[in-house]
Amino acid sequence: MPRTYPPTPDFPDDGGAERAVWEALREQLPDEAVVCHGVHLQEGDQEYEIDLLVAWPGVGVAAIEVKGGHIERADGAWYQGSGPARHRIDPVAQVQGSRHALQALLQERGELASRARTAHLVAFPHRYVSGGWDSLDLPRDMLIGRDDLERSGGVAEHVKHAVERHGQGYEPLDHAAVDGLVDLIAGGFPSQSEHLTRAVEHETRLEQMTRDQVRILDALSQVRRMRVLGGAGSGKTYLALEQARRRTRAGERVALLCYSRGLGRYFQRITAMWPRRERPAYVGLFHDLPVSWGAAGGRDDDPDYWERHLPLELGRLAGERAPEELFDAVVVDEAQDFGDLWWPSLLRCLRDAECGGVYAFLDDAQRVFPRDGRVPLELTPVTLDENLRSTKQIAQVFGSLSPAVVKPRGLDGPPVRLVDVPADEALDAADDAVEALLDEGWDPGDVVLLATGRRHPEQVNEVELGGHAAYWDAFFAQQDVFYGHVLGFKGLERPVVVLAVNGIRDVERARKMLYTGLSRARTLLVVVGDRSWIEEIGGEAVRKRLEKAEAWLPAV
């Protein structure tokens, strides 16, 4: 859905003519476009008004004059109304004059949009117009009739064709030009205020689109074994939660599992707010399940304990459980994190190893741990190919690191910011970036600083003082800036992410680490590190995306 200014226009009493065209544009134009209603212009002592103004990146600008009621052309003139109310009008001259005034004002102020292709159109939303109709002052492809409104996509197609064929100007409209035009029309609010406002709008849209994803589960409600593969921000975690809730509500005993502590704590907090009849029987880390059944604890720095001992213990302990302690279905989020030994043991946790429900949600591009476990089961494949979480600018940057093609569905947002410093200076520079963002007006609870190498001292201190549970509860409280590491932040997100690329231990997985870190941001992404190294790891696609990034030197 395009941006609209004002968001809810005050339409005139014209039989719904302007509203009809406005609603068609709102439904048909792409997300990056803008529709303005009632644009008033003052050029010298002349006043102008544009009923509807469309700014469409990659296409251009269109000024639209709307006339409702009965319209006819007779003896070379235009008439509106019938009987005693019939009167002469000149919609073409009106919109031509307004369009010329707009172009002159944009040029006078040095706006980029002054160079864009600009055309005018006239809309008669209550009048059917045959395809063969034509006039010297108003060709059919510059006239929107009732038949165009009734045809799917007809109004947007008309606008695009008119601008590309009749537009005056020598280049398409780019995003920077649109932002300048909007600032001018909407009252010239500072660009940072616009970014903060758009952040709220993006969050609302994200919630709506993510909720729409549940239709996938509706269509696959009878499938007992499912492998859901999707890129970062495609809604996998939301679907995993919803699937666990649905299976529990249907009377099944369900385990909802993941690998990382942060995501596990998130699951526990969310499910605790559900009605009791919808809460899964087990929610949390895969590793904690065998411990809860009696497995001995181990050291964090002992990979053999986590990757061999615990999964084998899970299988052994599951074989000793009574049927009522096992599960009818298991839901695994971030399933790519688990090694091969976990999966046979997981099947032993099912009451029915052959037909029990297995729902695995994963993203192969986020295999950031030094193992390549595969789900050794025949699962119905489901692919999510849209990014719902991030703005287009963020999704395009991290999407260039993924082998899969993911369509960005988020709104336009501020450009990605890049602070080019050596890796050993990245943490200090990231601290400066955080302070500068807070000075700009970003809420501290919306900001997270993630490291790729050595952990930030704040993270180390918080975990040592309060333990992992308190550390993650502070993240979910969203009251202050959060300090974390890419490896522990999988499945989580924040509106603003400052990614400190301060080294990566396993260079072979550097691309996946970058992909995971870059994809945690929803609205604003700040990358802090050695640009040349990042481009070397990311390749040509990343280099091209970073050409559009804003080189930033935060002043604090």
What does this entry look like structurally?
By secondary structure, the protein is an alpha/beta fold. The chain has 3 domains: 3-188, Trna Endonuclease, Chain: A, domain 1 (3-Layer(aba) Sandwich); 220-384, P-loop containing nucleotide triphosphate hydrolases (Rossmann fold); 392-551, 3-Layer(aba) Sandwich (Rossmann fold), CATH 3.40.50. The protein contains 18 helices and 23 strands. It has a 6-stranded mixed beta sheet with strand order 1-2-3-4-8-9. The radius of gyration is 28 Å and the shape is elongated.
Averaging pLDDT over every residue, what do you get?
85
Computed over alpha carbons, the radius of gyration is 28 Å
Principal-axis shape equals elongated
Q: Structural class of the secondary elements?
A: alpha/beta
Cα distance, first to last residue? 37 Å
Strand order of the largest sheet: 1-2-3-4-8-9
Largest sheet: 6 strands, mixed
Q: Give the helix proportion (percent range).
A: 25-40%
Number of helices: 18
The name of the CATH architecture of the largest domain is: 3-Layer(aba) Sandwich
Under CATH, the topology of the largest domain is which? Trna Endonuclease, Chain: A, domain 1
Total domains: 3
Please report the total strand number as a whole number.
Answer: 23
